[in-house]
Every structure is written in structure tokens, then in C-alpha cells.
Amino acid sequence: MNFLQGNISARFKVIYGIFFLLIISSTVWLSYLSSKGSLEDQVRSTNVALLNLIQQKIEMMLREIDTNTINFIQEPDVSFFLHGRYANDDLRFNHFRVLNDRFKALMFANSNISSFYLYSLENKSLLTDTTFSDEADFYDMNWRDAFTSMTSYQKWLDTRKITEISSGLHLDKNVITLVRSYPLISIPQFRKGAIIVNVAENTVSNLIQNVDKQRAGQTLVINERGMIISSQDKKQLFQPVSSIEGAPRLEQLTDSGYLTQNTDNGSYTTFYLTSAYNGWKYVSIIPNPEMNRPLQIIRNLLLTIAVGMFLLAIVLVFAVSNYTFRPLELFFRSITEKKIGRPGDLTYMEKFFKQIISDNETLQKQMNESLPALKWRSIMSLMMGDKTNYSRMKPYFDMLGISLYDVRFVVLVIELDRIQDIATPRDVYLFTYAISNVAEELVAGVCKGVSVELTDGRVAVIMSFEEDDSQGNQIQALQVADLVKDYVEGHFKQTVTIGVGRPQLHLEGIHSSYQEALNALKYKLIMGDNSVVSIDDIAGNNHNDKFYRISGMSDSVVNYIRDTDKVKLEAQLDKIFGEIIASNVPPEMIKQMCIQLIMKSIKVISDKGLEIKEFLDPKENIYNRIESCANVDDIKSYISTFLHQLIVRTEEKRLSRGNNDTIKQVMEYMEQHYMDSDLSLNLLASQFQLSVPYLSKLFKETTETNFMDCLIQFRMEKSKELLLDPKRKVNAIAESVGYNSTQSFIRIFKKYTGQTPGEFRENHNKAPRG
User: Fold this and answer.
1) Alpha helix locations (H) across 274-346?
2) pTM of the full predicted structure?
3) Which of 252, 367, 514, 768 is the most buried (most CB within 10 A)?
């Protein structure tokens, strides 16, 4: 009883002070430890997101320039220059003036373009917005080797130094260069030239600065050899990335991720990712003290809160001891039969402990509610390749109720078909949730696994097998996919398409299997809805030959549109799409061929003088329209409708044209003066007192051809008549039909007839006479 007879108030204060000190310090420390990992992940995720944003902005700019280049290079005047088809100098200069205006329009439309020029392989000449020059005299030919060795249709060259000549001034610049071949899709031996577009390196580094200006460290763009091609510090250009303090070696920068390097001057973290568009790597090198500054701030904040809470607890202990001293003394007096003064009660302490219990229940409830989100994040980390160590992930799996073996994984991606036909977004969400649960239950009957909802309408499933049988595991995955497909169709009255990746041995392979499943799912366009597509069904095929063969079939379609033959057009479309399905052509290639077919058809109709904008909806994006098609049949239906509309408009245009007396007079004049070598559109416009643009437009609208093609037709037909006389010499015939150069006459005659004048005469003489 000596303890009870002592100073109860002082003992109370000491005991409760120690108690609160232990509770607060342990709570704060555990809070810091539990949140440290997630905070570090958030810091890394933020840096990765910023690097992704930089890549997206730069590649968006580069793709926009590439798109503008594609549109520009398809202009008839550009094609005319690259083929070198100029009958005389006047025509050449007229085209140069037109091209100069096109150059200025393109550079005005896209301010990121520093300079560009056209290169004619046939004439070995170049044309810029300010000059025309032979290849041997041009100031910048460093891109020529890359163009010669280029096997693709376009290539972005690394940063290089050039000296531009503008208004007589020599300007040194660092530029990134796009080289695109002409025609757009052609193998090297059939190329006619190229367009070369230069983008100032400052444009790229400024984009990096705009995104990265509030972050410590530095962001670089490097090429596949590890050389720096864009940086805020221009002294770093053309230097290896290993020369930067804290940077890892090039061989360590594979795909995407981050690395930590320790140097004599400190520790650095490098975030990196590799572009699938041009192969460049985007690298951010950040000192760890700067990167971890938010963690230090939070740690200091928690310490401050702990100190404040402890001081508050001490104050409360003193206050509570004063209010509870009397009740405690009464309590002990009832035991010791001693009288102690002042009354009091324990009401405050009772409320305090009730609040602790209530807070604990609230915390437990919040923990249970957050488990689905934590589970989703952990599974996404596996599929994105962020988490690859099974032993480190195992405690998280156990906490979240995820059961997986440590090896042998296959990923399935399930996509709900025709989401747009489902009544409401809520219905889509409910179907997705139900499919995820069904898939997880069906997988549990075969092996271990887990499913997660990626987006509304799409579910990913990770299957983990005990047996070391890659082929058998793949077959089981396909069987589960069929079960899911049949269950959804039978019970939900909906259909799904399922992509199946390859089996992977270790946890880090989940990312690869997931990407393969997504790629397999793209073939839904060919396989159709309600199907299971394995990556093994589509991988390893070389589609180049199929692409060229099917693309060549589109020329017949263009001819049928020119001839307005709807029946043959439809038959040829059936043949083309039948070949596409039979050849298992990739979806991206199908869409590319269809866009090219539309572009060729529009060009043919434009050459006939039909204004496409008269019937095309300016709000309709043809590319997006094709992208939105769910399968090959939808694409074929859209292409067929579009091309039939072209034919209908062409027929309507022909009926509305009627006869034109002016063109009749012009044609009669040409028939009488075709042998004049100086006959040109300018001369005709002057003769009939018309403007050149108006006469050119009148020609197209009335004759469905242009002046030069019409003049060539007159001259070639007359040449064929003259060649029937064996006594006439070819050079004399050339002069008599308006050609001062025999070589030019022979070249044009062969392009027109497919034979040289000598071959034409010889074949005609061999032909039997009736």
C-alpha cells in the first residue's frame, strides 16, 4: 500500500507522459515507414510522367511535321519537279514560282520547320524556298548517305551542324533532319527523289525546358549510339551521355525505367525511356538529394507534428490529472480508508478512450475500402514492368489476397465487343466488373491467377502455373479464354474478344506477355468479334510482299473510278479485301492501304477538274473514320460507299459540263500549231485573251486533262503516223512535231507508248497486213 499512499498525481503524470511519448513516437515513425515506399514511388512516377510528357510533346511535333510533309509531297507541282518533267525553261520557271509559294505556305503553317528542300534524284538537283541548285553545288548534302542507305520510307536524322545560306549570309545551325522518300511508298530502286526537312535543335530543347523548368537536374535526348542530340547546354551536344556527371552507361539504358548511380560527387537517379517512333532515348538525370527533397520535407513535418502532439499530450496529462485527482483519491480511500480532499471524476478519460476506439474502427474501415485500389495498382505495376522481384512483392500479394506462383505466367486481355451498342456507361462498367469476376473464378479452377479491370470494357488476367510445361500452359490459357468467351455469351448475352500472350518464366516477363496480348487483340479487326487471338497466330509473318501485291491491285480501282465503272469497281474491291483476309494482313497495314487508295482516287478525280470539297464534309476526318471501324467488313463498306460517291459526282459533273466553245477553238488551234516548239499555256492564254489560271481550270473541267498532257497526245499521235514512213529519220520527225531535242522526244515517246520510236517502227513493220 506504500505506492497508493504516495503522490498519486505525480505518478499519474509520469506514467501517462511516458505512455503518450511511446504512442506518439511509434505512431509517427510507423506512419513514416509505411508511407516512405509509396512516396518514393510517387516521386519516381512523377518523374516518369514528366519524361513521358516531354516525349509526347516532341513526337507530336515531329509527327505533325511528317504529316505536313506527306501532304506537301503529294502536290502535283512537287511530283512534276521530282520527275523532272519540263518541256522548256518557261514551264520550269512557272513551276518554280508555284513551288516557292507552296514552300512559304508550308513554313507559315508550321513554324517549327527551319528549312526544307526538294531533291530530284533523276536530275541530281535541289530546290529550296530561295534557290535552285545542282547536287554538286548545294551547301548541305550530309543527309545524302542516309537517304541512299535508307530502307524505310522516312527517317529522322540525329542533330547535325549545317551552314545555311540565306540572303547571302552564312548561318551556322544545329538541326534535326527528316528525310522522306518520293513516292511515299517505294523501295529504293524505284525512288524518284526526296523531301528534306530541317528542324532547329533549339525547338526540341525549348519543348523540354517548357515541361522541365520546375525540376532539378537535366533532361537530354540521345541517339542509339548514346550521343547527345538535344540539351539545354549546347556544349553537351555531340558528346556521349556517359560524359555527364551521374549518367549510366548506354548498355544500361534498355527500354524504359530508372537507374541509380553513386559517384564521388554524390548520388544520381536517371530516368529513361526509348521512343518506338525514331529510336531516340529520353533521359533525365537528377541528383538524389534534389529528388528526395519532398521526402525530407515530409519527414521533418512528421517530426514537428510528433513534437507538437507530445507537448499537447503533456498539457493534457497535467489537465487530466487535476480533474481526475479527486475521484482517484476517493477510489483509493475506499481501499485504504484514508481521507483525501477535493472531489473529481474520470469522465474525460472515458471519452478519450472511446475516441481512440472509434478512430481505430474508422482506420480499419478505410483500410478495407482501399484494398481494391491497392490491388489494382500492384497488378498494373506487374504488367507495366515496374515490379519484377517476386520475393519483395510476396508480402504485398499476401496482404491483398493475391495468390500467384513465383514462376510461369501468361497474360490474357479481354475486351467487350461493340461497347457503343451497350445502353449506358454504367452498363459497360457493370459488364466489365462481372467479366473480371467470372475470369478470376474460371482461372482458379485451372491454376492460380488474378484479374483487374483496365478500363471500362477491358479486363486483364494474369495466370500462374505450377507445372513447368510451356506448351501445356499455353493450351490451358487458350482453354480458359474459350470458357470466358462462351460464359459471357451464354449468361450476359454479350460477346468478347480475347488476346493471349506467350508464356513467360519469371515475373518480369508479365510485361512482355501483356504487350503481346494487346497486340494480338488488335487483330480483332481481321478475326472479328467473339474470338480468341493468340500472339502465336499472328507473329512472325513478313507482310511486305503482301502489302505491295495488294497495293498494286488498287491501281485497277483507280482506273475503274476514272472510267466510272461501278460494277468492276465493286468486283475489284471484293477481290482486294478477300486477299487481305486470306493473307492475314496486320490491321495497321490494312488502314494504311485504304487511306492510300482514297488518296489516289481523290487525285484522279481532282485531275478531272472535280472539286472534292464540293461533296466532302469538312468536319469528317477520313483517317479517324477508318480508325473507328470495328472490323474489315466495316472498312470495306465505308471504302465502297466513298468510292461510289466519287463516281456519282464525276458522272454528275460530266453531265453539267456540256460543250465549251472556247476550248473547242483552243483545241483546233493546238491541232494546227502543235509543231511549234514554243507553244505553251501562256501563249494560248495570250492568243485567246484569257488568264493562265482560268484557261488551265477550263482545260481540266472540259477535257478532264491538262494542257501539257493534251499537247503531248497531239504530238505523239502525229509522230506515230510519221514513223510509219521508213524513209523519215527520227530526228526529223522530232523536229516536225515540235521537239528541238531528239533525246527529249525519244524519252517522252517511250513513256507515252512504252516503246522507243525505233521499236515502234520495227514492231509495226513486223505486224501482218490484211
Assistant:
1) 288-291, 293-336
2) 0.40
3) 514
